[in-house]
From TrEMBL:
Residue stretches making up the OmpR/PhoB-type domain: 124-221
DNA-binding segment(s): 124-221
Official protein name in the record: DNA-binding response regulator
Annotated Response regulatory domain residues: 2-116
GO biological process: regulation of DNA-templated transcription
GO CC list: cytosol; protein-DNA complex
SMART domains hit by this protein: REC (SM00448), Trans_reg_C (SM00862)
Modified residues (4-aspartylphosphate): D51
Length: 221
């Protein structure tokens, strides 16, 4: 998944970003609403972590604006406001969940995982296709009952492919979903990781394979 963290406290925003990236996902930062709107115009995101106390626009107005434009991205509110009224209003305006500051970073990640779940053979904390399963919480990959050792990038790519199992996925969309803005990576990073994933799946006897559609991208088979 790729998450946009909209939080004016840069230190807190970077802390959240590092925690999300450590789980193998991409995360970008916007320190105000204007930057957030710009980044949403140039990049596709799977979720937004939104502080209500932004310097240039109230977070509740941000939610109202996004939903009025028909933007369905899941929104997790962060708020230091003590009253319940703002939280209720935020949810009524279209936010999907909220956390009070201070918060547990593990709880934030768990809530994000819950918001990002897709209905592709989904059951509990698992994503499954054929005999290949990813436990979205532990990031554990199994073929039948056999554990596969995979790096964070490999797990992220496989998870993205499982979530988009019926679609042809371009290299560009994989790159955007996995790597944060400003992250330095070689042009063939996706191909190299994809080669490793295929080899590990094949050696484990996986019934799910990743095929290349020349000039377009990849698809599960």
């Amino acid at each position: 998944m790729r998450v946009l963290i909209t939080e004016d406290n840069q230190q807190l925003a970077e802390f959240i970003q590092q925690a999300i990236m450590q789980d193998g996902h991409a995360a970008d930062i916007a320190l105000d609403a204007a930057t957030m709107f710009y980044q949403l115009s140039i990049m596709q995101y799977d979720g937004i972590v939104l502080d209500l106390g932004l310097p240039d626009k109230d977070g509740l107005d941000v939610i109202k604006h996004l939903r009025s434009k028909g933007i369905p991205i899941p929104i997790l509110i962060l708020t230091a406001r003590g009253g319940i009224d703002d939280r209720i209003k935020g949810l009524d305006l279209g936010a999907d969940d909220y956390l009070n500051k201070p918060f547990s970073i593990d709880e934030l990640k768990a809530r994000l995982r819950a918001l990002m779940r897709r209905p592709v053979d989904y059951s509990g904390n698992d994503l499954t296709r054929g005999n290949v399963t990813i436990e979205t919480k532990s990031r554990r990959v199994t073929v039948d009952t056999q554990n596969l050792t995979m790096g964070k990038t490999e797990v992220a790519i496989l998870e993205y492919m499982l979530k988009h199992a019926t679609l042809t996925v371009s290299k560009e969309s994989l790159f955007d979903a996995i790597y944060s803005m400003g992250f330095e990576v070689t042009d063939n990073a996706i191909q190299v990781a994809m080669h490793r994933i295929r080899k590990k799946l094949e050696q484990a006897g996986a019934t799910t394979h990743i095929n290349t559609i020349r000039g377009i991208g990849y698809i599960l088979a």
